[in-house]
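User: Hi! I have a protein structure encoded as tokens and I'd like to know what sequence might fold into it. I'm fairly new to this, so please keep things simple.
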């Protein structure tokens, strides 16, 4: 079914009159939208479908004449499809709190309906390509400039030309055109190192709220404050098998296994020989975590797989009983200690639709026995949560892409079976379909004027942006940017070992975020810096103001090879697994791993300032301490294969960017380091404990003295200077009655993570205090100076209830005659 797409000139231009100000000028944002629409049309948006797709040929030797499109290049709008509802078997909501013991909520039985997708042919649109003067580039630099991408060519054109005291051009531009220490990436504002032993093995992830940093490693999750101290409600790392335990028995009951193995606990997600038990959970992990800054919610996504039975069974058809389920946790508040709502649903199309033992497609279903999902990812828009993975059969064949779109409000509100749709292998134009890794974008804010979600996918020499509209059902549109074709490099050497590190997942997006109408993403991209293809990192940004009608490339830079400031000139370093984020100022941070024959596996970062033409030289996040053995072998063999990176914008000031990644520790394993770049370090005062005396009886009269003790703690990453504790009575008998000031206590400066205990502080009960019930409250405050806290909503602690009685009657002097007071 073909769907007509109205010209963007009419759709956007028709709104011009409504946004003009009284002085006749147009709002800046709308000027950008209209300009984008005009560019889209002049680039050929309204052309008829041509059906032409260039053949994927090996790339010619790089020269400036065949470089990829540069900044300002427009995306080709390839196609649009309308999706009909495709229902899931959704289980949930279940509620889980800090105790990590799930309690079942009332759940409506799952409803199953039929549905389908409607496709349209792509529209092939000509691309406007930037050009550069070939004569401006000295011989010998052309190849490396093209390897670095359009942004490096653009940056190079701004360099002062040699002569008159200016040194000749350097060809050592793999990392940056800047070659001085003064231009190195900014130093960290915060750095902490995590204990390697309890934190899990793989796939580093990080997410940040105003006051909390979450760190995830495959199947173990930790919540810290910003000083690097575990939250009291989560006093250590915990396994996601325990966290999701409340939903797993219901998942096991829904697997639809063949009768031959239906009662075999090895084929269940979480059932051992003695019955359901978190300690018997199998493959629960491969998790991702995001803080949804639009709705102030934590999102944890994992997969559950019944791999144990498939791996251990001797039956040749055991693979047909593979099942994969998504496990989704949505917090009920910005504070994760207030609990999560849990959901479970299929991670492959119609997962387990039939229980046959052959690989024939299930009747009236998209499921083929043997399908299993892998590499889950989660993105955010205002309307939807976007969840992806890819699935395949162990018998071989293409990795298919799978997308589930869930109504965010339904998931946050705990609705039974939140409204949702799913898609797989959606059309990306030119005869291609989405496949392998697809990366949903985490929107840090609503996209104006047309809010929507985005999912990224790469095909050979194309980066595809699939937009997911806020309609119900959502409408998908595909746009494409051209890019250099990927080539594989294989594993890369590490110092002190013949075993290699696998940084080679070319051109598959690793992280993607959107802020200020700018999409930023990073992926691995191999380049022949020295004749051999070397793992490198590609940074790509685009202005997406005009979505779904168009998008404009802003930055496209591949970097790697080595650091001219830190590495020997003859070292060839592999770079890979990048995480990327941009702050409100437009400054970008990229965190990644590096390894070489001269370098232990390390974590490093680079920055790209908004007003500079190129990345700055990199800086160490944490150096490696030794080689990583992977089983022992002679000659190059063995692979450590990291698959994710941790990076997150701090929603508090939208300036600081937190990063987390692996490095090689001295014990032969990997540890994780967490740091923050940009912005400032701030304190975050809390009062976790308040007490008072006398405790019995718990009543006082006006004029009596109350003795108060309390604890003040700084959970920020910056020091708290000149803190005070303000002590008050809080009326409980009368709603809305003002608090009554008792006094103030001066406390010493507190370093990040430091606690101070204050005791035996005496305060008189004012004589005008009304009779009633009160609580003792202490609020931590910072007096004087320009000091901001991450939050002041958590600064108050309170004690038990006490009661204020009427004043005691005044007694006159002693009467000897009566033997009593007069």
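Assistant: Happy to help. Inverse folding works backwards from shape to sequence: for each of the 822 positions I chose a residue that suits the local structure. Here it is:
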């Amino acid at each position: 079914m073909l769907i007509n797409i109205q010209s963007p000139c009419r759709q956007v231009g028709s709104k011009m009159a409504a946004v003009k100000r009284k002085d006749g000028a147009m709002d800046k944002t709308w000027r950008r939208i209209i300009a984008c629409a005009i560019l889209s049309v002049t680039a050929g948006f309204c052309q008829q479908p041509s059906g032409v797709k260039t053949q994927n040929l090996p790339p010619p030797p790089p020269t400036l004449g065949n470089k990829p499109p540069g900044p300002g290049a427009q995306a080709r709008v390839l196609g649009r499809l309308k999706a009909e509802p495709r229902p899931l078997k959704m289980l949930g909501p279940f509620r889980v709190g800090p105790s990590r013991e799930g309690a079942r909520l009332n759940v409506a039985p799952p409803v199953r309906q039929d549905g389908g997708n409607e496709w349209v042919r792509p529209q092939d649109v000509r691309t406007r390509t930037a050009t550069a003067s070939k004569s401006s580039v000295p011989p010998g630099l052309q190849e490396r400039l093209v390897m670095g991408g359009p942004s490096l060519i653009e940056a190079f054109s701004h360099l002062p030309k040699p002569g008159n005291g200016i040194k000749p051009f350097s060809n050592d531009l793999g990392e940056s055109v800047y070659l001085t220490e003064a231009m190195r990436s900014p130093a960290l504002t915060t750095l902490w190192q995590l204990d390697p032993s309890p934190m899990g093995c793989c796939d580093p992830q990080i997410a940040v709220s105003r006051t909390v940093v979450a760190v995830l490693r495959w199947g173990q999750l930790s919540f810290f404050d910003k000083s690097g101290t575990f939250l009291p409600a989560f006093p250590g790392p915990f396994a996601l098998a325990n966290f999701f335990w409340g939903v797993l028995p219901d998942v096991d009951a829904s697997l639809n296994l063949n009768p031959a193995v239906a009662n075999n606990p090895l084929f269940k997600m979480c059932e051992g020989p003695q019955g359901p038990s978190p300690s018997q959970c199998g493959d629960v992990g491969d998790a991702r975590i995001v803080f949804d800054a639009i709705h102030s919610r934590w999102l944890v996504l994992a997969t559950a797989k019944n791999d144990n039975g498939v791996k251990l069974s001797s039956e040749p058809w055991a693979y047909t009983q593979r099942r994969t389920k998504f496990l989704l946790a949505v917090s009920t508040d910005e504070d994760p200690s207030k609990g999560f709502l849990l959901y479970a649903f299929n991670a492959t199309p119609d997962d387990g639709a039939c229980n046959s033992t052959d690989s024939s497609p299930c009747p009236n279903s998209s499921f083929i026995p043997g399908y299993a999902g892998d590499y889950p990812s989660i993105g955010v828009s205002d309307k939807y949560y976007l969840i992806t993975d890819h699935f395949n059969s162990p018998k071989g064949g293409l990795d298919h892409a799978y997308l589930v779109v869930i109504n965010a409000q339904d998931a946050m509100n705990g609705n039974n079976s939140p409204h949702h749709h799913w898609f797989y292998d959606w059309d990306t134009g030119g005869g291609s379909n989405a496949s392998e890794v697809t990366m949903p974008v985490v929107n840090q804010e609503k996209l104006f004027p047309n809010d929507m979600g985005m999912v990224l996918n790469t095909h050979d020499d194309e980066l595809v942006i699939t937009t997911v509209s806020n309609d119900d059902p959502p409408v998908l549109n595909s746009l494409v940017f051209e890019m250099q074709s990927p080539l594989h490099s294989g594993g890369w050497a590490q110092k002190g070992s013949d075993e290699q590190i696998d940084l080679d997942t070319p051109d598959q997006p690793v992280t993607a975020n959107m802020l200020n109408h700018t999409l930023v993403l990073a992926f691995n991209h191999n380049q022949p810096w020295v004749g051999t293809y070397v793992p490198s990192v590609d940074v790509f940004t685009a202005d997406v103001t005009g979505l779904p009608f168009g998008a404009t490339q802003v930055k496209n830079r591949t970097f790697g090879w080595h650091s001219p400031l830190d590495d020997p000139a003859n070292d060839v370093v592999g770079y890979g697994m990048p995480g990327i984020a941009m702050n409100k100022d437009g400054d970008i941070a990229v965190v990644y791993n590096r390894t070489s024959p001269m370098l232990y596996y390390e974590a490093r970062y680079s920055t790209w300032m908004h007003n500079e033409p190129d990345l700055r030289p990199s800086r160490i996040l944490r150096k490696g301490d030794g080689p990583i053995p992977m089983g022992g072998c002679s000659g190059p063999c063995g692979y450590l294969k990291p698959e994710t990176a941790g990076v997150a914008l701090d929603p508090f000031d939208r300036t600081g960017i937190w990063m987390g990644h692996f490095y090689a520790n001295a014990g032969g394993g990997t540890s994780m380091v967490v740091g923050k770049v940009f912005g400032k370090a701030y304190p975050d005062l809390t009062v976790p404990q308040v007490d008072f005396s006398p405790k019995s009886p718990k009543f006082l009269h006006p004029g009596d003295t109350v003795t108060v003790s309390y604890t003040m703690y700084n959970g920020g990453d910056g020091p708290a200077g000149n803190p005070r504790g303000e002590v008050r009575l809080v009326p409980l008998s009368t709603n809305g009655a003002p608090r009554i000031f008792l006094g103030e206590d001066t406390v010493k400066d507190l370093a990040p993570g430091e606690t101070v205990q204050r005791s035996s502080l005496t305060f008189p009960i004012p004589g005008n205090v009304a009779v009633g019930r009160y609580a003792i409250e202490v609020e931590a405050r910072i007096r004087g100076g320009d000091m901001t806290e991450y939050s002041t909503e958590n600064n108050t602690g309170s004690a038990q209830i006490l009661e204020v009685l009427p004043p005691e009657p005044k007694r006159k002097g002693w009467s000897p005659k009566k033997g009593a007071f007069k």
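A useful reference point when you look it over: The longest helix spans residues 28-42. Feel free to ask if any position seems puzzling.
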